[in-house]
Amino acid sequence: MALFGVMEMATAVDILSDLVVFIAPLWIAVIVGVVLGWAWKPKWADNLASIEPTSNNYYLPKLRLPSWAALGSTSGPHTDLSSFSVSTSSGAGSSSLQRNDGENEVSALVTEQDLKHLSMLVEEKDGGPAWIQMMDRSTPTMSYQAWRRDPETGPPQYRSRTVYEDATPELLRDFFWDDEYRLKWDDMLIHASTLQECPVTGTMMVHWVRKFPFFCSDREYIIGRRIWDAGQAYYCVTKGVPCPSMPRHNKPKRVDLYYSSWCIRPVKSRKDDQLTACEVLLFHHEDMGIPWEIAKLGVRQGMWGAVKKFDPALRIYKKERASGAPLSPCARSAKINTKITPEYLSSLENATNDIIETRNEDTSGKPIGRNIPKLLVFGGVIALACTVDQGLLTKALIFGVARRVANIGRRF
């Protein structure tokens, strides 16, 4: 029995040591695979840049994490913005393009179709997959819940509900629209400028550059945004829009598929059951060029750290506004919005229901968005297996991990 016990212990030690030997190259394989997946970009991906938005003003899936939860780290060199040829003022909210007395072409970038889609998201009637809850956190002045879902095509989508105590919808509306103030508290935003604006509808086209961790290049966004005032709620749409006059660069990389829209409305406070709190329902997805399954892991780890920065920034903003500080150009633009009635909004929702039913009947084919990141990771692992070790056992283990990584999407 003693001899058997010693042999059993020796066997366990041998197995453990072998596992340690094998685990190291496996981790290297995964890391190299991910790096290759980010770095390699096929030529056909560039051709997708010309794809027009769909009827929901979404771009079709491209090989491009939500910027509010981008893997946590913000270290890395700042982007040199001097190479942009479009004449934009460096101050947030400034506009270098001439405005007309009436509505101009920028108003066509964000339309009623976007309002309908956001309204259906708010009412959870858009016909998409069910939401899976990810998080439920709170502080004395804020509560936060988040959900995720994976559509058949396109990147993961996120929904969050944040309730701010002692805040009004108007304050939250201006706060989220105020790029000039965001530059002071959001350490990932390194540039914000207004390219064009409609003085009638308040529709804006803005240019953002966000700083990313050192292993990613910075990302730039051309965003169209507009606010609808439904009496007791503000519907704020922001999404990626085309801008042919703004040339593309290798750095920062442009994010074409971007959607980040929210509904702001008063709710009862958990302190006194009065309508002194404000709810923000946010719907967000984007495709930055990071494999989607890897991005989901990063979002899960970095989400709360990013979100909890909002509340202290809001409290300072509230004090500044109460002291009579002048409004920034963007905050002034937030007050220019399109007024609608709840009845009109309901009519849009009813019309959208018919559109969704028709689209669901026509939807067919297998998902294409997720297979590409898996292929890139798998290709990186194969390259490593052919160079790091010539042993068949190690290669078999590496290929096994690659297959597991490629199948992550089925379990998330």
TrEMBL record:
Protein name as annotated: Uncharacterized protein LOC107465915
Signal peptide: none
Organism this protein belongs to: Arachis duranensis (Wild peanut)
Residue ranges, compositional bias (Low complexity): 82-96
GO MF annotation terms: lipid binding
Ribonucleoprotein listed as a keyword: no
Keyword annotations of the record: Membrane, Transmembrane, Transmembrane helix
GO cellular component term of the entry, any: cytoplasm
Database matches in Pfam families: START (PF01852)
